[in-house]
Amino acid sequence: MTRASADVHPPLTIDQQVALHTAATRLAVEFDGSYGTETIEKFLHHSYDQFATVATISHHLPLLAERFARQRLHALARVEGHHRDGRPVVLFLCTHNAGRSQMALGFLTHLAGDRAIAWSGGSEPGTEINPRAIAAMSERGIDISQEFPKPWTDEVVRAADVVVTMGCGDACPVFPGTRYENWTVDDPAGLDLVDVRPIRDEIERRVRRLLDDLTVTTTR
To answer: Which InterPro entries would you find in this protein's record (predicted)?
Structure first.
């Protein structure tokens, strides 16, 4: 189902079990008519396992798992034909899903609004978003501080109309029939804010060109 594999992690606490049960209930309501309890719980717990192996703050895990499972279920619904609304889906991939792909996601969401869908992922997800990337985007009025590094999964890649890769090389997934673009953009990891700004601006230019190519109207 995904490139990343889950390692053994500590047993769930009572609070975590309750939080995951509540999340499963919300997802069941949201995807009623498309997926049953078994599928939803499988995606939710698998998503939880992926974050539990690298997380530093465990009390956030159920929320992250719910958000990731929701994205994956939406992707699966698109792949299986349960949901098609005509909006293009763009998936941004880099190595750690902590800088470049998150900034690209932020720009596309900001510029396109609800006229396109942006997802992101990494071949080796980090543990947090690069604070310099957050600061650089904040200067443009875009908040990516609530995003989180996540792995790519097969259903998410298959649901994308365009997959943009930035530095993940051979680790990036390839599915026949999917449009791919490789953007040569410097990695902001370890750089000061002044050096991240040109990377941010280059990503914005590329996102604007992509939206224009997809005939998606921007409001900014």
So the answer is: Phosphatase-like_N, Ptyr_pPase, Ptyr_pPase_sf
Kindly state the average pLDDT of the residues 140-151. Answer: 95
Would residue 109 show up in a list of annotated catalytic residues for this protein?
Answer: no
User: What average pLDDT does the segment 31-53 reach?
Assistant: 91
Question: Which candidate in 108, 164, 168, 210 is catalytic?
Answer: 168
Q: Give the closest residue to 171 by CA, choosing from 125, 124, 130.
A: 124
* Largest Cα–Cα separation, the chain: 49
**Cβ-contact 102, 120 below 8 angstroms:** yes
Cβ(180)–Cβ(163) below 8 Å: yes
The reply to whether 63 belongs to the active site is: no
Q: Which of 19, 172, 196, 211 is an active site residue?
A: 172
* CATH fold for the domain made of 14-79: Helicase, Ruva Protein; domain 3 (1.10.8)
**Residue 124: CA atoms inside 13 Å, Cβ hemisphere, count?**
6
The separation between the first and the last C-alpha atoms of the chain, rounded to the nearest angstrom, is 37
Q: Are 211 and 194 in contact (CB under 8 A)?
A: no
* Residue of higher predicted confidence among 86 and 158: 158
* pLDDT surpassing 70 at residue 1: no
52 is catalytic: no
Domain residue spans in the chain? 14-79, 89-213
Place domain 89-213 in its CATH homologous superfamily: Response regulator (3.40.50.2300)
Q: What is the pLDDT of residue 55?
A: 56
**Residue that has been written with the tokens 């792949």 in this structure:** 79
**Mean pLDDT throughout 142-156?**
94
Residue in the structure block whose two tokens are 């673009």? 181
